[in-house]
Amino acid sequence: LFAFPSRWAGAGGTRRGAMALECPIVTAGRAPLLETVDAPTAELVTPGSADDLARGLLTALEAPGPARARASAARSRFVEQFTIEASAQRTAALYGRVAGVGARTEARHG
Question: In a 3-state reduction of DSSP, which class is residue 28?
């Protein structure tokens, strides 16, 4: 079980690590943390609320089936969006759009 109740953290490297390991995640439900995980992939808790953090931890520990399902969904999201390969593909596609590669290819074949 990975608990990340931070109110100030940004990019999400530690959450991505937990996602890669298919570890159940309990985290604060606020931006920018929600750019990495959301309700289908983590148990979200109210930022700054110790009571809600305790509730989220107990929920994950006492209901392992749903916690495992969220962890599996998080792993799938990691593979789709956060691996080096997925990041490289998105970067190459962005560069292609910026350079107009798609438009030139369509013009030649269209």
Answer: strand
Residues 6+ apart with CB under 8 A from 81: none
CB 27 within 8 A of CB 14: no
Count of CB atoms within 10 A of residue 48's CB?
11
- pTM for the whole thing? 0.79
Tell me how many degrees the CA angle 78-15-51 measures, rounded to the nearest 5.
135
Tens-digit pLDDT profile for residues 16-66: 999 999 999 999 988 888 888 999 999 999 999 999 999 999 999 999 999
Closest alpha carbon to 43 in 67, 63, 23: 67
